[in-house]
Amino acid sequence: APQVYSTRCSSSTVPRITTHYTVYPRDKDPRWEGVEMERFADEADVVIVGGGPAGLSAAIRLKQLANQHEKELRVCVVEKASQIGAHTLSGACLEATALNELIPDWKERGAPLNTPVTEDKFSILTEKYRIPVPILPGLPMNNHGNYLVRLGNFVRWLGEQAEELGVELYPGYAAAEVLFHEDGSVKGIATNDVGIGKDGSPKDVFERGMELHAKVTLFGEGCHGHLAKQLYKQFNLRENCEPQTYAIGLKELWVIDEKKWRPGRAEHSVGWPLNRNTYGGSFLYHLNEGEPLVALGFVVGLDYTNPYLSPFREFQRWKHHPSLMSTLEGGNRIAYGARALNEGGFQSIPKLTFPGGMLIGCSPHTHTHNKSAFFTFLLLFFFVSCLQITIFTQSTIYCYIYIQRAPSCLSRHSLLQWVSDISHHSFLKPAKDCAPIEYPKPDGKISFDLLSSVALSGTNHEHDQPPHLTLKDDSVPVAQNLAVYDGPEQRFCPAGVYEYVPLETGDGMRLQINAQNCVHCKTCDIKDPSQNINWVVPEGSGGPAYNGM
Amino acid sequence: MHRSSEVKHVASYLNTRGCECFGQPCESHCPVLTDRTIHVQLKTFIKIRVKPDRTGVVTDGVKHSMNPFCEIAVEEAIKLKEKKLVKEVVAVSCGPQQVQETIRTALAMGADRGIHVEVSGKDYETLGPLQVSKIFAALAKKEQADLIILGKQAIDDDCNQTGQMTAALLDWPQGTFASEMTLEADKLKVVREVDGGLETIKIKLPAVVTADLRLNTPRYATLPNIMKAKKKKIANVKPADLGVDVCSRLEVLKVDEPPQRQAGVKVETVDDLVGKLKEAGRV
């Protein structure tokens, strides 16, 4: 890798970008002298970080078991989104096996599984043509018996089931810090502080987050969780597994012409507009939810090599394929969002347990790897056999697998060379060795520009807070990312957070971080070639406002 | 500083409206919402869309939260309590089950108890300032409130009527658009934000005050307080119990999105501009 010249602190020519206390600790900061930093602490039996499918399923199962055995169990779920489901984004195609075991009467309870798959289509796209590939029964990409769902709505419903069982749900509060006992085991988490100004100084309304201590803490943050990252290092959880591979998934919801609507149809494709060296593909699901709604999206493997590739623009131009135009013409786009997702198989699963807790769901990157790589959820429930248990190894684990057939069903083995040792960020070739890609201009009817798309995600953050996209070194973006790779973060971020703009005085450029646009997809943390970007959690309630995505 | 019949209740009435764009140009040109939503967070940019049958906007699944001006009203009430000028702060909201979350937020900020006036379904869709004012007036009499503080307007329908109507129904004085309020003996000094500047008035209690932006900066509802708020009481009341008929006198004929903004045209000279204006029939 090219040598990086880095300076410890910003020089006069590098404007200060990062002000977050994880980079500039407050105990050394004179502005924080005398500020009360003690935190209120509370005890629970189990604390779950993340109110998504994994976290909520775990909470539900725990409470079911506790009730069954007539034991009191305090289960608390903290979730950074302002409401449960608001940060959930997925295709999605759900296999109900796990749900049948968790909540057998889900239908009577009104679970929003309204669209059984009735038609399954798979194709390879070229620029002009669509080559259908037959899906035979028995092949893993056969979706018969599965449901097309709006996962956000399903998660919201799971939240209601959890609350009914007595789970304490706290949306709007992000877990910002892992707490440790003196012996190094996990003690619990602390939620985010509030009222810190953009420059990192305390505001009048500054309040410390609170500490939630638990016998066991479950981390269900989804793909590439920021606390999970710390836990890997802390407990060396990745020493015996392959590095994780990732992709970015972008998605839109459209209301289409009723005549084109085929509820129950699931379509996937590979090929155009990606070249044969770039992993990815599309999905298009016709949902049966009252109005003629389709969920469509595009996935691009984050091991792509050309720094000029823009996953967002690949997605937009894919929609112009002749096979799609007829479906989308006359339709109306009503939602947009994006999220990084795990691609690796069993070989990429790290050690899941550590003293005081474990990783659940996408957090530990648990996807069952198959001949055809479909995305899975690993939901781990454990049974606390007696309430005094503090050591995790005494618990039993029940595994439930939600299998989501989402985009890109074809095996990476068959399409690409298998690459194992190298992490994604180092795949990027220098800009001088690559050709810029000429993307077509959005037409405003089928394809759209980035900013209007970001507006549809409903994302926003309290503006007067330190940017949560923190840089270890403020000088690296211009010196390295821009100089060598022509600023790829401007293209891989699906929300327009990163922009290189001219300096106000003199020559040169600077990186501008529009933190308010962030949709919490985590792509930058994964793909930054300098691995200089560290995504940390912003003030709770910030982020996208997805509605049934 | 107390008067002989001291200020017992400050009822902070949470307006049951809400919207997405606060204080900033609305990127998505939201149409006026006609159904009742409750909002919390300022600056949540949620793209609102019109229902296919054009009778209103889609609210299912949309994040509802406390109206920003109501947050300011709650904060002001709690400040008065902290200064020991009032004894009890009651938070009230009208709407379906979800409003309980909003009331809890007020309780977490420091209100003592809550009242949830249950209005749901079709009634909720047609609930307007007049009905809400009647409910508030009835509650104020029942609770023997001395001071009512509301947000000046809800940011989804921008009616700016509830405070004024409530005062009229009760025949109480009102201090609207308050950017400052001080209790002086048995009178309330209110500094109002008006077009020409600031107007200072003194009104006798009991009174209605509506909060404007600069009144205060609301505190965060911290998680420990949210947890404690779960133990505070929220009473359930129906409009009928208060003798209020929530039937609306207004019928919404149609809700539409604003027309697409057309591209502008650049001209070279003033004559060109005049010519274009004449062409468009504007001059």
From TrEMBL, chain A:
InterPro entries (alphabetical): 4Fe4S_Fe-S-bd (IPR017896), ETF-QO (IPR040156), ETF-QO/FixC_UQ-bd (IPR049398), ETF-QO/FixX_C (IPR007859), FAD/NAD-bd_sf (IPR036188), FAD/NAD-binding_dom (IPR023753)
Cofactor note: Binds 1 [4Fe-4S] cluster.
Cofactor (UniProt): [4Fe-4S] cluster; FAD
Catalytic activity: a ubiquinone + reduced [electron-transfer flavoprotein] = a ubiquinol + oxidized [electron-transfer flavoprotein] + H(+)
Transmembrane regions listed in the UniProt entry: 373-403
GO cellular component, one term: mitochondrial inner membrane
E.C. number: 1.5.5.1
GO-annotated molecular function: 4 iron, 4 sulfur cluster binding; electron-transferring-flavoprotein dehydrogenase activity; metal ion binding
Residue intervals of the 4Fe-4S ferredoxin-type domain: 509-538
Domain of life (superkingdom): Eukaryota
Keywords in alphabetical order: Acetylation, Electron transport, FAD, Flavoprotein, Iron, Iron-sulfur, Membrane, Metal-binding, Mitochondrion, Mitochondrion inner membrane, Oxidoreductase, Phosphoprotein, Transit peptide, Transmembrane, Transmembrane helix, Transport, Ubiquinone
The protein's role, per its UniProt record: Accepts electrons from ETF and reduces ubiquinone.
PANTHER family: ELECTRON TRANSFER FLAVOPROTEIN-UBIQUINONE OXIDOREDUCTASE, ELECTRON TRANSFER FLAVOPROTEIN-UBIQUINONE OXIDOREDUCTASE, MITOCHONDRIAL
Subunit and interaction comment: Monomer.
Protein name: Electron transfer flavoprotein-ubiquinone oxidoreductase
Native species: Sinocyclocheilus rhinocerous
TrEMBL record, chain B:
GO molecular function: electron transfer activity
InterPro entries with a match to the protein in the record: ET-Flavoprotein_bsu_CS, ETF_a/b_N, ETF_b, ETF_beta_N, Rossmann-like_a/b/a_fold
Domain Electron transfer flavoprotein alpha/beta-subunit N-terminal: start-end pairs: 54-246
GO CC terms in record: electron transfer flavoprotein complex; mitochondrial matrix
Subcellular location: Mitochondrion matrix
Keywords assigned: Electron transport, Mitochondrion, Transport
SUPFAM superfamilies: Adenine nucleotide alpha hydrolases-like
Main location: mitochondrion
Keyword Membrane: no
GO process annotations (BP): amino acid catabolic process; fatty acid beta-oxidation using acyl-CoA dehydrogenase
Protein family according to the UniProt entry: Belongs to the ETF beta-subunit/FixA family.
Function: Heterodimeric electron transfer flavoprotein that accepts electrons from several mitochondrial dehydrogenases, including acyl-CoA dehydrogenases, glutaryl-CoA and sarcosine dehydrogenase. It transfers the electrons to the main mitochondrial respiratory chain via ETF-ubiquinone oxidoreductase. Required for normal mitochondrial fatty acid oxidation and normal amino acid metabolism. ETFB binds an AMP molecule that probably has a purely structural role.
Assembly and oligomerization: Heterodimer composed of ETFA and ETFB. Identified in a complex that contains ETFA, ETFB and ETFRF1. Interacts with ACADM.
Protein name (record): Electron transfer flavoprotein subunit beta
Source organism per UniProt: Sinocyclocheilus rhinocerous
Gene: LOC107728982
